[in-house]
From TrEMBL:
Superkingdom, natural source: Eukaryota
Species of the source: Morus notabilis
Keywords carried by this UniProt record: Cytoplasm, Dioxygenase, Iron, Metal-binding, Nucleus, Oxidoreductase, Vitamin C
Principal place of residence: cytoplasm
Entry's family note: Belongs to the iron/ascorbate-dependent oxidoreductase family.
GO molecular function, one term: dioxygenase activity
Protein name, UniProt field: Putative 2-oxoglutarate/Fe(II)-dependent dioxygenase
Cellular-component GO terms for this entry: cytoplasm; nucleus
Function, in words: Involved in the regulation of shoot development and salicylic acid (SA) homeostasis.
Subcellular location: Cytoplasm; Nucleus
Domain Fe2OG dioxygenase: 202-302
Amino acid sequence: MSTASMFSVKQLVESGFCAKSMPSKYVFPRSDDNSVVHYIPDEAKVIPTIDFSLLTSGNPDQRSKVISDLGNACREWGFFMLINHGVSQDLMDEVIKVSEDFFDLKEEDKRDYAGKTLFDPIRWGTSFNVSVDKTLFWRDYLKIHVHPQFNAPKKPVEFSETLREYCERSRKVASELLKGISESLGLGKNYINKKMKIESGLSHQLLVINLYPPCPEPDVAMGLPPHTDHGLLTLLMQNQLCGLQVLHDSRWVPVNPLPYSFLVISGDHMEILTNGKYKSVVHRALVNNNATRISVGTGHGPSLDTIVSPVEELVNWEGDDRDCDRDRDLPAYRGIRYREYMELQQSNQLNGNSCLDHVRIL
């Protein structure tokens, strides 16, 4: 079934059709791994927090400490909260506002962008991929390829200018984070950015805006199931409603971010690039029955034609003879073109970090 022939979740809610009970196509079986009750949340764990200002303008001791903290967060969590990042609160508020305005457009205006292919500049839809989803997710989305070529819907009129500024600012933040992550690996400040051509003007940035309307039965539905992100890093912000959870030590940890912070998610290509030293984090989005949650993510990766494989310096051999039987750290992943990996993820159901299994060397 094409996206264009389906109701959006927002339209479904506003029609009153699901005011008292859930349509069966959105109900996950209790035995399903995606069930909300499948894992017990762990409220006690403390999510790492990184102060961006100390990374960019701190003294040498402060910078050394935050780089160490950054490495620990990537190694142990694949996730952290970023504060003092320099993106203004006014701009972040405006992005949320224009996102709401887009989803408030008439259905026919939004459907101008519906039912398109993965690499079309702008794509509006519902669930994840309705052609492969066995059960639909309680989520509408807008996906825009914003770099190296910037795109934006024509409506609302202020959307384009606001998104352009926000995407430029988030690219700068991501670039600085990658410098710190590169240093934490002992690779040198600019190693990852040069290897992935992040500052060449050809790197890829995808903006994803998620809308999770109020759900009449949040215990049986899912906003997004457990999954990992493609790319190197995702920078995520949201309105003041929580719903994100990350998987840490086999327990779901609810994320309650500080206002105007970024949530930084390590992606599959960070795991591939570091040969598994830094993991991509499994996360999911829950829904609520009170209000609409909006999240805005910018995914940062190399150019679509870049082949990402483990960095040689992180594939450590013991001894001089590579054909000997001594202990050695072999490449854990085969190289894959970034474009092909995105196609692979889009054509399969979201299921934890299963997409990595296609490139993992057993």
